[in-house]
Design goal:
8-stranded mixed β-sheet, two-stranded antiparallel sheet, 251 residues, Rossmann fold, 34% helix, alpha/beta
Length: 251
């Protein structure tokens, strides 16, 4: 059974969510930057969970998808707080976090904030620290000038409209950087990454694996996989990965 709703995060901004009842642990999907819970990975994983009677929760960060709020006013700290709010109010018991791109960063922050709740973590092209490593550090001097002058920089995107990068996003992101110190999560970690990813270098998966203190860490590289990893063969890898964490033999 699937239920949907909206959760006030405490300031009048409502977060849209979709939950499926079932056995635990609850799978929680965390979307990427400018993505939402209606994407192929989120909906495919929901079907995977439903077929197995597994509980699952999907939601949209503020400023994303069907949730309220202004995307341009959002930042990593806000979206990490949204995640904790949804998890604390809509789930109980152990959870498995599945984070895509930015969602991988949010998943790691969540695991650090709620270690007693997170049973395992799956990253799909996980991109912790991307606001610094992949945005600010790669900007030309003229782009940095524009960002600091206007408060926002619009960067061309192969996925549609230009991506707005705000000064607030960059500055807040620096408060949540995690890769330059041990990440104190001891549960199972599975990292899936395409080696043809044009947005997030696959080597970042190895960086994450080295930073997490857990010894139960596995990295799966998909040689021809892109950033989205949404092809049927990519989704099959995701299902097998999550299934194994649930004690199954795969999809």
């Amino acid at each position: 059974m699937t239920t949907t709703g909206r959760l006030d995060r405490g300031d009048g901004t409502e977060l849209a969510w979709s939950a499926q009842a079932g056995r635990g642990p609850t799978i929680v999907f965390l979307p990427g930057f400018r993505s939402d819970m209606s994407g192929d990975k989120a909906t495919g994983l929901a079907e995977f969970a439903a077929a197995r009677g597994q509980a699952m929760l999907r939601f949209d960060y503020s400023g994303h998808g069907a949730s309220g709020g202004d995307f341009l006013q959002g930042c990593i700290g806000d979206w990490a707080a949204d995640t904790l709010t949804v998890i604390d109010h809509l789930t109980s018991g152990p959870i498995i976090l599945v984070g895509s791109s930015m969602g991988g960063w949010i998943a790691l922050l969540t695991a650090m904030a709620r270690p007693e709740r997170v049973a395992a973590l799956v990253g799909i092209a996980a991109a912790p620290d991307f606001t610094q490593r992949l945005m600010w550090d790669s900007m030309a001097p003229t782009e940095r000038v524009t960002l600091l002058r206007d408060g926002v920089l619009h960067v061309p995107s192969q996925y549609g409209d230009p991506t707005p990068i705000t000064q607030r996003l960059i500055e807040d992101g620096r408060k949540h950087l995690i890769l330059d110190a041990p990440i104190p999560f001891t549960g199972p970690v599975r990292l899936l990454h395409g080696q043809a990813d044009p947005d997030v270098p696959w080597e970042l998966a190895l960086k994450i694996a080295g930073a997490v203190v857990s010894t139960d860490v596995a990295v799966t590289l998909i040689k021809d996989g892109d950033h989205r990893l949404s092809r049927p063969q990519d989704l099959a890898v995701l299902y097998r990965t999550v299934g194994a964490l649930l004690g199954e033999d795969g999809a």
